[in-house]
Amino acid sequence: MKKERSKKHRVLQLLRVVVQAVFLGLFLNLLFGARFSGEDYIGDVEVFFHFDPLLAVVSFLASRRVLAFFGLAAVTVVVTVLLGRVVCGWVCPLGTVHQFFSWLFKKTKMARPKKPAAGGLWVKYAILVFVLVASLFALDLAGIFDPLSFLTRTLTTAVIPAFAQAASAAIGGLYTLRLETFGDKLTQAVEALTLNRTFQQGFFIGLIFLGALVLNLWRERFWCRYVCPAGALLGLLSRWNLFKVKVDEAKCIECNLCSIHCQTQASPFPNPEWKGSECVYCETCAAVCPTKAVTFPLRWKREKPPAVDFSRRRILAATALAAASVPFFRISKARKRADPKLIRPPGSLPEPEFLAKCVKCGECMKACPTNGLQPALSEAGPEGLWTPVLVPKVGYCEYYCSLCSQVCPTGAIKELAIPEKTVVKIGTAWINKNRCLPYFLGRPCIVCEEHCPTSPKAIKFVMVDTKLPDGTVATQKAPVIDLDLCIGCGICENKCPVVDDPAIYVTSVGESRSKENQLLLQVGGPERWGTL
Amino acid sequence: MNRRTFLRNAAAGSIALGARPRLFAAAPPPDLAFVQGESPAALAKAAVETLGGMGRFVAKGDVVMIKPNIGWDRTPELAACTNPEVVKALVELAFAAGAKSVTVMDNTTNQAQRCYIRSGIQSAAKAAGAEVPFVNPRRVKKMAVKGAWLKEWDVIQDFIEADKVINVPIVKHHSLCRATMGMKNWLGAIGDPRNQLHQRLDEAMVDLAAFFKPALTVLDAYRILVRNGPQGGRPSDTKLTKTVVAGVDATAVDAMGATFLEIPPAELPYLKFAVDRGLGRIDLEKMAIEKRTV
Q1: ipTM of the complex
Q2: Cα distance from B106 to chain A (closest Cα, Å)?
Q3: Which residue of B99, B122, B131, B293 has the lowest C-beta tally within 10 Å?
């Protein structure tokens, strides 16, 4: 038989790569667009998330609210029902990243698939069931595994900071080579992108990403095959797809190449074994077939697909495991009492509702112009891992900025107009008189007062007598805080010249969003702060 | 011009000068220009013209650095940053005088992009052809400031490498030094930890003013900040005084500026330090001040 590969499917394969590149570019463009652009309002840079049915369904279940903007996920659902998991194969930016590395490992002969892989596909369905069941208990774990959250969080807190550091080092090299004009130009260009480069946990979040990439050495698109709950959800929806793989037995030479190179273990050969729920329509099988035997003809007839080995018993086990796990996520001192360091971005919902909606994507951290928003480690308990907290030592909350609230894809941070934002209290500043220069050294300073952005200022000064070590008395202007005016933005802490442990610092108490985390009657009352 | 005409002109000039000294171009320019009117740009241009025109300060081919106050993320009506039209007018004048390049720069306090954009200064200065770069950390170097108190500090090199530096501060209230104008503005031309300078702010300001030696100081007093300084926050914190003051003596300009906040110059310790160091004058009553309205 004449050996000839299908030109049509090779073109389709190429087209798929182009489409993937376009969507990845779009995704990155939107991600890099999550920054101050000169305008107060930056538009729907988070729109990619709204096409994600997993986030839609989990946010709906966990928050018990229908979020209108997730209506866009219906597009993905319809596309998947009609065409199968094309979104995984052609659109998903994380899928593209994994596919790229799978391809790279294969091209460089680091990975050499010899025979089709078998088994293990049920794991991602188990993760999906786990996430869905947890969301019934208002525990939102979708963000840990959701591909868009995973990629956005990783890029924001690890990859972009690393890129920024590398760019900075490269520019430094230009200066060493005396290419200063060029260096100046690049510095300005990079500066204009506002790349946040300081993230607690950035290293570890980066390591997890690296691990996910390295697993592609073992199996192509490992994440998509075994982990991704969004892919699993689309797999469940793809049973009725119109295009089903067909292997022409007359042409097939049973070389098994199609199944060996199948990126998602959908096993096109033998034909009856093909798993429509796993196929991402990457066109690889049809393109590698040496005899043009593999095609994707339109077939209306519903065929009973061979099920992934996700038995009823496993569904029950995953459900039971999830239900049993929920209480463990709630063993946390954060639920007993507000954590002083848990300073949420302005517009954040009250903590339980916030946790039910936040998908830990880090989009707010990308948008924050001062790098102040950081992924939480333990401040909010286990379920609050990687949720945003303001760390004033790293960056403060910019007074006229509400970008974090604008880019939040789930409304965990309620979208605020600038005038609304400026009166939201996210915490309260305190002075450590033992470290404050005027108080304990009798020296002039009041840098905090200078920077306080409210008008009238929440930090005022009083004349204070300080006994010095030599017994003399110095009289200086020293800061005091007007609790009614302080919004907890943290610029005082950020700019305090006592570098290591600032003499003025913000804690979460008094935050507008909480009824419990208060200190005084009438302070933070609705007459000034409004209710969220 | 030959010897005879020169002598004739000189004689005629000296007679005329003795009679009506302020009407002739040959007259020495005043110590301070004090111009009032409606348009910030026109005020700035008239103030420089009163001092003898930009040609007196900027030579053909000069690399010019203009230092406004862009310290805060505040829009112009809040008077926390220099009026963008004043900055733009100065850029235009510098180019008209033959400047090779004009750069506008400040080390901001709030996030740089926000300050540059929302102050209106970036777009105004760019429209006039200036470069408006952000501070490049690689161009910040420790230098001998050689002040009476401040011996060395990190300095942004762009300000040192320029042929001519023009300081364009705005009059604002400040809780620590009472009035922030030209001398305080130099804290935006240096690196961190500049916040620590607050511990001896008056001396630091004077040392920096002596170090940077601007060719010209143009003080924006069009809309000034009278309380809650140095960033204000409400239009009611500002006051329209519709004035631009300019002078070569930076101390004298600040002395005049203090009067907008109703502070006698002699009450400001940093102005006293400046006088003691022979940096300039604050005896406004004895200065030649040319007041104009445009």
Answers
A1: 0.89
A2: 14
A3: B293
